[in-house]
Amino acid sequence: MNLMLAMVVDPWILIFSLVTVLVTVGMGFWSAKKSKTASDFFVAGRSVSVGWNASAISGEYLSAASFMGVAGMVMKNGYDALWYPVCYACGYLFLLLFIAGPLRRFGAYTIPDFAEGRYDSPVFRKIAVIFVLFIGFFYTMPQMKGAGTTLSYIFPGLDYKVGVIVVGAVITINVALGGMKGITLVQAVQYWIKMFAICVPVFVLMSVYGFYGSQISVNGPELPAKDKLLNVAPKDTDGPELLRRAEATHRVEKWQVYPERKALPEKAPRDDAWLNPFGSLTTKAVKTASAAITPDASQFKQVPTKPGVTPEEVGLFDLGKMDAKQALAIYGELTGRTLLPRDNPHQEKLDQKLDGQLTQWKDLAPLNLGLQSNAKKPTTGTEFKTLVDEAFGKLGLSFVPVEENFFRIVKTSEMEQYKAALTKQVQQEWFDNHQRPYSLLYTYSLIIALVCGTAGLPHILVRFYTNPDGVAAKRTTMWVMILIGVFYVFPPVFGVLGRNLLPELYSAVGAKGTDKVVLELPSLLNQKYPGLGSILSGITCAGAFAAFMSTFSGLLVSMTGALAHDVYGRILKPQSTAEQRLKAFKVCAVIIGIIAILLGTQVEKFDINFMVGQAFAIAAASYFPLLFLSTWWRGMTMKGAACGMLGGGLLALGGISLTSFSDLKLLPLEHYWQANPLIRILCEQPAIWAVPLAIGLMIIISKLTSKDVPKDIRMKMLVLHAPEKLGLKQEYIQDQQMH
To answer: Which pTM does this prediction carry?
Structure first.
């Protein structure tokens, strides 16, 4: 097996990836030697400059979701998915305006430190620690998906789970050795690796396959099913033979040769998804609910006679001379229904799908049904209907009811095809009627989750404690917005190029799906320039490693710090020495790393960005309300903050867990979600109700327990908001030197 893998591994891709890993581990070991105090491990000695910290925060924030997931999501959903990168960046505006400066002035190691210090409550620290772990584990899962996808691409045939285990183990060891100071340098460097890896391949690909405008024009109305010109137009001197051969295999317009675009699978987004950015995101809930819709069973039964027609009702008909058109007119009177003509818009699409075989008068009018009358006994209405049914049956035709007032004629041999087409039409009509309101609800909820969740991610917030003061924290936030804003220009371009050049990814799932478009796309250049594609693929793989390694490192430090510092150092053993806490840090890093790896092996089927959106929703419903209100409202009490965090955060976590376990077939809720798509959406992306719930609970409970407001709240608010020049800044946690 190993020999077979070695034979197909691209050496350039392997080299670039190994160099990235070795540089990361090497810098971690080097920085570990400089970590002398507990402060070095937890907040990098509070001495990181604005430039380095902005690069490190950007490197940590630009995860696998940003490097791989945004491109994959844009390719999969069109420009509706641009909400992801835009909201990722906008979240830092909230941080800049409301949280970054005050949080740093308080001077803690972790967010649970802030929670305890703000409310003088060790109990509240325990609640805050729980959500550090919840958010962290949900955020590690997409990083593990990125790791498994990348290694599966580098080593074709390698199992996804093996990739997750290998990468997770390397990062866990690196964090256990270096702590926060070890990963600050690593993450700062990795930001620039990711920027180089995302932008250089884009420019090369566009120079070969057409620049951005030409790629977008592929989806325009002027060329709905063709690619933009990729070949040079034939010269006049090439002669008529070249033109004749070109016309035989290509569409020729104004001497422009347009090769046929690769066929797009059904899963590919429609062209208008690329021409109208920032639309509503279609959710899985609507798709699964529409797929469960079936036509009324009566639509496939015989056409009934209309109410009020008795079996004794008679008519005098010259049946021998009656043609099909006359018979159908009387049939319609007896049933109270109208035959759907070919041009009726109600069923036109269905008729077209069956090649116009249904209800065409020109096929029926000349036919003599061969009906025989009985002069002695007039034909009753029900007898006449039976005769017509039998006569058309002999011709291979059947009547089927359509809704309440119509009927249609279908070839008996095509009845199953008709049923399938009608079912698909009913499903599409339901989807068209319900898709927009449900999708808008999901999109609004996602926007709230991403914007507010960014301001509530503990592994990002802890980085502001590494700045020397609050002013530096604000300047850092401004630079982070610039750095990540520039980065997010490039992944959508990969999505557009992937849609035109790698449509086969739409048919794949898991590690082989659209999430790997960033890795796969540069390799196409090998067809034109052998070797160049491998080099660029190696660069993008290096960027992918930098993406999930930097973010996973930050998450591990955040979660490990919560256990080692908040649980062990502040709850279990408050008298522990600095050396004991550092040992606890390393042990906790290994334990959390193992749990994260196990979770990562189970999420191959989920999109990277989808999982990140859920992690952000939990952060938005728990930490964001806590930090925002605790920083700006002096009337907030510990009980109010705790009720809000538990109410909003746990309910959001519960809803997300239900949908995730259902998708993994661990809970039998599939039929329930199909019948209740609205509930599915509110559980899958709960920010739209969980964030207001958390804020409302915090305000109401705080008002009811207003006597419990900390007595020194005025001083605390002054520390949070007073300019550094007044000298009121304090370090809530004091450094301890290791021996």
So the answer is: 0.75
